[in-house]
UniProtKB/TrEMBL annotation:
It comes from Streptomyces spiralis. It comes from the Bacteria. This is Uncharacterized protein.
Amino acid sequence: MTAKRMLVAEAVVVGGLALALLVKEMPGIVREVRIWRMVGLRAGSRHPR
């Protein structure tokens, strides 16, 4: 097996693992985005009273 084919195979494996992790974590990411929208994305940048 040549070095180029080995690099392509490794890239495919790493890409597949990253895609699988993203799909697995998608419900949690959606939940976090909903919470951020309810709270407001700029909640930490308010001026103190």
